[in-house]
């Protein structure tokens, strides 16, 4: 659908898949805001992409409301930022805490804070960047806390789809194995290929799906 003039916030978008999503939504006519933990890197990326940047440290949820109050309201929320630890979670509770904050708690809080504007506007789209490493159907293969928290993000997506009005669509998606700093140089997919489904979900029409899990615009099993 035509999303010209809609305000989109993409977290962790100063590089990789997030930046590709931001650029794609900019091309769709959105006002795009990059959320970045390092504001200077965010500003550099935003300047090149022709978008805006805000300081958004996902481990500091108490500051989200102040940041969002300056946006004028977010119509499209893309929870893209993530962290990946390979160490055993039972031995590294600090990894668990960081992963929980970034992958699950921050998306929940951002959904909660953005929903009132979306309700009032009668339109909203939320996209949660997940992974098939967090899918029970794929054996929950993610290392450390990653798979656990991505599975929880999937559950949050489904549960919120039942709470939110039908005018707000929320979906999760798996970008596949993408050549980014997290994915590594051996990954076969480009950031743009990884971003495609997220952009599609962010611009769904009124008859589009909600409460689903997708890759390459096709439904995946949880």
Summarize the structure.
The protein is α/β, with parallel strands linked by helices and about 220 residues long. It is about 40% helix and about 15% strand.
Strand-helix topology:
Blueprint: E1 7-11, H1 16-27, E2 31-36, H2 39-49, E3 52-55, H3 64-69, E4 76-79, H4 93-121, E5 124-129, H5 146-163, E6 168-173, H6 191-202, E7 213-215, E8 218-219
Parallel strand pairs: 1-2, 1-4, 2-3, 4-5, 5-6, 6-7
Antiparallel strand pairs: 7-8
Describe this structure in words.
This protein is an alpha/beta fold and 222 residues long. Helices cover 40% and strands 16% of the residues. It has 6 helices and 8 strands; from the N terminus they run βαβαβαβαβαβαββ.
Keywords:
alpha/beta, 222 residues, globular, 8 strands, eight-stranded mixed beta sheet
* Number of alpha- plus pi-helical segments: 6
Q: Mind telling me the C-alpha Rg?
A: 16 Å
| Overall 3D form | globular
- Helix-strand string: EHEHEHEHEHEHEE
In the sheet with the most strands, the strands line up as 3-2-1-4-5-6-7-8
What share of the residues lie within helices?
Answer: 25-40%
What's the rounded overall pLDDT mean? 94
The N- and C-terminal alpha carbons lie at a distance of 27 Å
Secondary structure tally: strands: 8
The residue ranges in which pLDDT falls below 50 over 5 or more consecutive positions are: none
The biggest beta sheet, please?
A: 8 strands, mixed
Strand content is: 15-25%
Q: Structural class of the secondary structure composition? A: alpha/beta
